[in-house]
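Hello again, I could really use a second opinion on something today. I've been puzzling over a protein and I'd love to understand its fold better. I'm sending you its amino acid sequence along with the backbone structure tokens. It would help a lot if you went through both lines with me. I've dropped the whole record in just underneath, so have a look.
***
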Amino acid sequence: MKMLHAAVLALTPVLAITAAPALAEEAAAKLSIDSPIEALMANEAAKAVVIKHLGPLNQHPFYDQFKTMTLPQVQPMSNGAITAETIEKIKTELAAIA
């Protein structure tokens, strides 16, 4: 049992290193309105879509407070700046690039 435990511990860094690029590619391929805003802003194509419709959210004074939220989560707090129509447009355009 101790050998199995040691083997698993020894492989853990290798598994993490080999899995990380695959996970990053998978995450990038699945960007949507349900992705955190910071993930959208980290992808150049998704960032262009968001900026096209909402302006440079990553330069907003409160970006650090909402960057881990999704666009639908931020919408009710946006005082009408983020509409359901705008989110639908972003959703459609993100699906086209993913």
